[in-house]
Design brief:
Layout (H helix, E strand, L loop, with lengths): L6 H17 L2 H9 L6 H9 L18 H13 L6 H7 L13 E2 L7 E3 L6 E2 L8 E4 L8 E4 L7 H7 L3 H31 L1 E2 L2 E2 L4 H27 L2 H26 L10 H11 L6 H19 L1
Parallel strand pairs: 1-3
Antiparallel strand pairs: 2-5, 4-5, 6-7
């Protein structure tokens, strides 16, 4: 079997990376931070025009007609760029919520569990909800993921919507969030290596020191293992493999961001650096669609079923 990306998939990834580099580079990222996380509707429409949200819709319905593996590649690039907004929910809503596929509507979801909803103030709809609830702003760990607490999610919650759709929303949401995490983990490897090559101590780059080398090597291993798990789960769409991919990607994103901070030393903790933004986003994403505890439950149930079948 050939596990390499096809030429079309490589072109897709390169095209998305170029688009985001041109439209959402570092200056745009810092402008988003300064604006308090308000969503850029112009950028959202451009993503829609590029097929970001309609990627998996059939061509007959105005979509691109690609599959989950291609979506994982696209979301990996979005995670690498720290692109803000309810990307996963709007992507899942394409074809069901008017305007979602084209990027003219912003769709969020009860994907954080309980009453918390991300980007509610900018949203036109909530996935699985018949109406847009009102909420009270609460402080978020991530300055680019504003949160609201709603009074009672009730039957409009993401879990209820996932159950009604046979679990598709929950599994696909978890996989695409894992792809975002993998992209962030890969990006922090790049940031750590670049800084280790530039920063000098005792007359040589700090990357020449064994402790820094080992730290960067461990980051790379985590990121590549997570990316491999995400790609595999995107091909099989197996719930257990999706759960495993989410676990690995969450760990890679959080631990790599912490190690990247370690490589940067005191500079990494300053507001001007971007490393802390990766860590804060990774913390929030780790609680979205499927938490570590929920993913472990899925894997435990799968192992129990396999053990029973072997008896």
């Amino acid at each position: 079997m050939d596990f390499r990306l096809t030429e079309e998939q490589q072109d897709l990834r390169s095209g998305v990376r170029d688009l985001l580099a041109g439209r959402y580079g570092r200056e745009a990222l810092r402008a988003s931070v300064d604006s308090g996380g308000a969503l850029d509707r112009g950028l959202w429409r451009e993503l829609g025009e590029a097929g970001f949200f309609a990627l998996r819709l059939p061509e007959a319905d105005g979509g691109v007609g690609l599959g989950l593996p291609e979506a994982a590649l696209v979301f990996e690039e979005a995670g690498r760029a720290l692109l803000p907004g309810p990307l996963v929910a709007t992507h899942l809503a394409a074809g069901t919520v008017p305007g979602a596929a084209a990027g003219t509507a912003v769709v969020t979801a009860f994907d954080l569990g309980g009453p918390l909803v991300a980007h509610l103030a900018d949203a036109d709809a909530v996935l699985g909800s018949p109406s847009l609830p009102s909420g009270e702003p609460v402080r978020s760990a991530d300055p680019l993921t504003p949160l609201h607490r709603v009074a009672a999610p009730g039957e409009a919650g993401a879990a209820a919507a996932a159950d009604a759709a046979g679990g598709v929303y929950r599994d696909e949401g978890a996989l695409l969030t894992a792809a975002l995490q993998a992209g962030s983990a890969l990006r922090t490897v790049e940031l750590a290596v670049r800084y280790a090559q530039e920063r000098e101590q005792f007359g040589q780059p700090i990357g020449a020191f064994q402790a820094v080398k080992h730290l960067c090597a461990q980051m790379l291993v985590r990121a590549e293992v997570a990316r491999t798990a995400v790609y595999a789960a995107a091909v099989t769409a197996d719930p257990a493999e999706v759960a495993g991919a989410k676990l690995l990607a969450d760990e890679a994103a959080v631990r790599n961001a912490r190690d990247c901070l370690q490589v940067h030393g005191g500079m990494g903790f300053t507001w001007e650096a971007d490393v802390h933004l990766h860590l804060k986003r990774a913390w929030v994403r780790a609680e979205q669609w499927r938490t570590a505890g929920e993913a472990e439950d899925v894997l435990a149930a799968e192992l129990l079923t396999a053990a029973e079948h072997s008896l």
